[in-house]
Design a protein that fits this description.
The complex is a heterodimer of chains A (112) and B (409). Chain A has 112 residues and is of the alpha+beta class. Chain A has one domain: Alpha-Beta Plaits, CATH 3.30.70. Chain A has two helices and six strands; from the N terminus they run E-H-E-E-E-E-H-E. In chain A, helix 1 runs antiparallel to helix 2. Chain B is an all-alpha fold. A two-stranded antiparallel sheet of chain B has the order 1-2. The chains are: A alpha+beta (112), B mainly alpha (409).
Chain lengths: 112, 409
């Protein structure tokens, strides 16, 4: 099994979700995060004081899939999340050693 | 019991409630501007003042301000514990109101003045120290000043005009704030970390409540219902509006975007500026006062970085600069056509006479409040200590001083 983590622009979440569902991915976990890579932050002004805001709001998606589905999932995310502008994000793939469905106790691929 | 005018009494009862409401409004205005971990601590300063100062005012504060006169400096103890207040009448004719209402109304001013000071000490003052300071300050600074300006004291006899508290409330609190900011020292991270507002919508709500309540603050200072309350109400709204427009315009003209916090602050600045002038000036002068104050206060924010003190929520920049500007402009725009009990300012044939008296009032208030505040703060620092320890300041005062968290998300 592989765990895929993707940091994407928040407004791209719906497109990515639909692309993954079309591939048969049955579930995902989503976080609101903030971060930066090459995308610069911006300046905010409160009561005349300037504040540099380095971190940009992003959305992080986590999914676990079978090994054979992983490359297709990775590509689907890349295609759906791309805007061709700085700050589109990154996709990371890790090995996943185990998975259990809590309700039934199913393990491995059965749990996905 | 002698008769009271029911119209004026009704208005003054409403005004009392309006001014009280300004204190939770101030709480929201300030709280939105501090960091999340200190939202409750900031709120508590204003909230607790409602309890603490209400009691102190009733027991001794009122009588020191309005209970007779000793040498033009302080009142007496004739109304200790509000003795003789219930059943008595203040004012005459159509402005005759129960003294109980008058006393309560004035007490609301004492409460919010204390709340205003808290802006300068945000995010690093011990709560116990704040309570001690609030109690002593309301007795040793507020009551005497209220006496000087409204209770038959020397500034009133001199003829200095302050309709609703430009000196007693705004300049006094700003001078105290300056003393406190200097003695407390800067917040950790000032100048290096981002100490930014955590909830601007909350501050806007607070500013809206302040504007609403300010009708009671200014128009209620007519101490009756009638033409004077009407003109004060009008002047108040116009100054708030002009203040907002001026601040936003200044932001844009200095190359920045117009901010929401700026628009709200501009309105507050305009309201501060009109406070001493509300019952003495006409509508167009009110617009001018609001615009000038809004613009000057925008630049007044720079005082703290220029002189190196951490006035966290700009009490000096807004209430100090605004109060002084308004008090001085009262000496320019006051007209007896608006209020026969006032005087004519520079532009209404009064020459420099009134202006001179206004300057005396401003100067005396700054000096008295600054010095006595500093003494009170020093005494508290030597006994209880003013500032929380480094660990508590880092954790946040909500948890450290109140064992509470503002938000659960």
């Amino acid at each position: 099994m592989k765990k895929i983590e993707a940091v994407i622009k928040p407004h791209k979440l719906d497109e990515v979700k639909e692309a993954l569902q079309a591939l048969g991915v049955s579930g995902m976990t989503v976080y609101e995060v903030k971060g930066f890579g090459r995308q610069k932050g911006h300046t905010e002004v409160y009561r005349g004081n300037e504040y540099t805001v380095d971190f940009v709001p992003k959305t992080k998606i986590e999914i676990v899939v079978d090994d054979d589905l992983a490359p297709k999932v990775e590509q689907a995310i890349v295609d759906a999340a791309r805007t061709d502008r700085i700050g589109d994000g990154k996709v990371f793939t890790f090995d996943c050693e185990g998975a259990v469905r809590i309700r039934t106790g199913e393990r491995g691929s059965e749990a996905l | 019991m002698p008769a009271v005018d029911t119209g004026s009494t009704a208005w003054m009862l409403v005004s009392t409630a309006l001014v009280l409401f300004m204190t939770p409004g101030l709480a929201l205005f300030y709280a939105g501007m501090v960091r999340r971990k200190n939202v409750l601590s900031s709120t508590m300063h204003s909230l607790f003042a409602m309890g603490l100062v209400s009691v102190i005012w009733a027991v001794i504060g009122y009588t020191l301000a309005f209970g007779g006169d000793h040498g033009g400096v302080i009142g007496g103890l004739s109304h200790l514990g509000l003795d003789g207040v219930v059943g008595a009448v203040t004012g005459t004719g159509s402005s005759a109101i129960p003294t109980s209402v008058f006393a309560m109304y004035q007490g609301m001013f004492a409460i919010i003045t204390v709340g205003l000071i808290s802006g300068a000490v945000a995010e690093r003052m011990k709560f116990r120290a704040f309570v001690a300071f609030a109690a002593l300050w309301s007795l040793l600074v507020y009551s005497p000043l209220a006496h000087w300006v409204w209770g038959g004291g020397w500034l009133q006899k001199l003829g200095a005009l302050d309709f609703a508290g430009g000196t007693v409330v705004h300049i006094a609190s700003a001078a105290a704030a300056l003393a406190a900011a200097l003695m407390l020292g800067k917040r950790k991270g000032y100048g290096t970390e981002e100490l930014r507002p955590h909830n601007v919508p909350m501050s806007v709500l607070g500013a809206g409540i302040l504007w609403f309540g300010w009708f009671g603050f200014n128009a209620g200072s007519a101490l009756g219902s009638g033409q004077l309350a009407g003109s004060a109400c009008l002047a108040t709204n116009l100054s708030a509006a002009a203040g907002m427009l001026a601040w936003s315009a200044t932001e844009v003209l200095t190359g920045r975007k117009p901010t929401v916090l700026g628009a709200a602050s501009g309105a507050v600045a305009g309201l501060v500026g009109i406070t001493p002038a509300a019952g003495f000036v006409g509508p167009m002068p009110a617009l001018a006062i609001g615009a000038i104050t809004g613009c000057l206060c925008y630049f007044g924010l720079r005082l703290k970085s220029r002189f190196g003190f951490d006035d966290a929520l700009d009490v000096v920049g807004v209430h100090g600069v605004g109060g002084a500007t308004g008090a001085i402009l009262t000496g320019v725009f006051a007209s007896v056509a608006v209020n026969s009990a006032g005087a004519n300012g520079l532009l209404y044939g009064g020459g420099l006479a009134l202006l001179g008296k206004q300057l005396v009032g401003v100067g005396a208030t700054i000096a008295f409040s600054l010095i006595v505040s500093a003494i009170i703060l020093k005494c508290i620092d030597l006994t209880i200590g003013l500032r929380v320890d480094v660990e508590s300041e880092a954790t946040g005062l909500d948890v450290a001083e109140h064992a509470e968290t503002g938000y659960e998300f």
